[in-house]
Specification:
With about 100 residues, the protein is mainly α. About 65% of the residues lie in helices and about 0% in strands. Keywords: Lipid-binding, Signal, Transport.
Length: about 100
Amino acid sequence: MKGSCAKPVLFTCAIFLILIVAQENRVAALEPCDPMKLSPCLDTITKGSEPSELCCTKVKEQQHCVCQYLKNPNFKSFLNSPNAKKIATDCHCPYPKC
Protein backbone atom coordinates (compact mmCIF):
# COMPACT_ATOMS: atom_id res chain seq x y z
CA MET A 1 0.00 0.00 0.00
CA LYS A 2 2.85 2.39 0.80
CA GLY A 3 4.44 1.99 -2.65
CA SER A 4 1.29 3.02 -4.50
CA CYS A 5 1.09 6.30 -2.56
CA ALA A 6 4.78 7.15 -2.92
CA LYS A 7 4.83 7.29 -6.73
CA PRO A 8 2.29 10.16 -7.10
CA VAL A 9 4.04 12.09 -4.31
CA LEU A 10 7.45 11.65 -5.95
CA PHE A 11 6.01 12.60 -9.33
CA THR A 12 4.43 15.76 -7.85
CA CYS A 13 7.70 16.69 -6.13
CA ALA A 14 9.64 16.18 -9.37
CA ILE A 15 7.25 18.42 -11.32
CA PHE A 16 7.44 21.06 -8.60
CA LEU A 17 11.26 20.96 -8.68
CA ILE A 18 11.29 21.32 -12.49
CA LEU A 19 9.00 24.35 -12.26
CA ILE A 20 11.24 26.01 -9.66
CA VAL A 21 14.38 25.45 -11.75
CA ALA A 22 12.63 26.72 -14.90
CA GLN A 23 11.51 29.89 -13.10
CA GLU A 24 15.03 30.53 -11.79
CA ASN A 25 16.46 30.16 -15.30
CA ARG A 26 13.84 32.55 -16.67
CA VAL A 27 14.71 35.22 -14.08
CA ALA A 28 18.44 34.70 -14.65
CA ALA A 29 17.92 35.15 -18.40
CA LEU A 30 16.81 38.78 -18.01
CA GLU A 31 19.24 41.21 -19.55
CA PRO A 32 20.96 43.37 -16.90
CA CYS A 33 19.71 46.96 -16.80
CA ASP A 34 22.05 49.18 -18.80
CA PRO A 35 20.63 52.31 -20.46
CA MET A 36 23.59 52.39 -22.85
CA LYS A 37 22.18 49.27 -24.50
CA LEU A 38 19.37 51.49 -25.79
CA SER A 39 21.84 53.53 -27.86
CA PRO A 40 20.56 51.98 -31.14
CA CYS A 41 17.35 53.94 -30.43
CA LEU A 42 19.06 57.33 -30.11
CA ASP A 43 18.15 58.48 -33.63
CA THR A 44 14.52 57.57 -33.10
CA ILE A 45 14.34 59.33 -29.73
CA THR A 46 16.06 62.50 -30.94
CA LYS A 47 14.79 62.73 -34.52
CA GLY A 48 11.60 60.69 -34.55
CA SER A 49 12.82 58.30 -37.25
CA GLU A 50 11.50 54.75 -37.52
CA PRO A 51 13.07 52.43 -34.95
CA SER A 52 15.46 49.86 -36.37
CA GLU A 53 15.09 46.15 -35.72
CA LEU A 54 18.11 46.36 -33.40
CA CYS A 55 16.44 49.21 -31.48
CA CYS A 56 13.29 47.13 -31.00
CA THR A 57 15.34 44.14 -29.86
CA LYS A 58 17.17 46.25 -27.28
CA VAL A 59 13.94 47.87 -26.07
CA LYS A 60 12.42 44.43 -25.52
CA GLU A 61 15.54 43.27 -23.66
CA GLN A 62 15.51 46.35 -21.42
CA GLN A 63 11.73 46.64 -20.98
CA HIS A 64 11.90 45.32 -17.41
CA CYS A 65 14.19 48.27 -16.56
CA VAL A 66 12.08 51.19 -17.82
CA CYS A 67 10.52 52.05 -14.45
CA GLN A 68 14.00 52.11 -12.94
CA TYR A 69 15.21 54.42 -15.73
CA LEU A 70 12.24 56.74 -15.21
CA LYS A 71 13.44 57.37 -11.65
CA ASN A 72 16.65 58.85 -13.05
CA PRO A 73 16.17 62.53 -14.03
CA ASN A 74 18.81 62.17 -16.77
CA PHE A 75 16.70 59.59 -18.60
CA LYS A 76 13.17 60.57 -17.60
CA SER A 77 12.79 63.37 -20.15
CA PHE A 78 13.88 61.07 -22.98
CA LEU A 79 11.62 58.23 -21.89
CA ASN A 80 8.60 60.48 -21.47
CA SER A 81 9.05 62.03 -24.91
CA PRO A 82 6.57 61.37 -27.72
CA ASN A 83 9.36 59.70 -29.72
CA ALA A 84 10.03 57.18 -26.93
CA LYS A 85 6.33 56.37 -26.84
CA LYS A 86 6.50 55.96 -30.64
CA ILE A 87 9.26 53.38 -30.14
CA ALA A 88 7.13 51.51 -27.63
CA THR A 89 4.23 51.46 -30.09
CA ASP A 90 6.27 50.60 -33.19
CA CYS A 91 8.22 47.87 -31.37
CA HIS A 92 5.04 46.43 -29.82
CA CYS A 93 6.30 46.98 -26.27
CA PRO A 94 3.63 48.36 -23.97
CA TYR A 95 4.68 51.56 -22.22
CA PRO A 96 4.85 50.70 -18.51
CA LYS A 97 2.67 52.18 -15.81
CA CYS A 98 5.09 52.61 -12.96
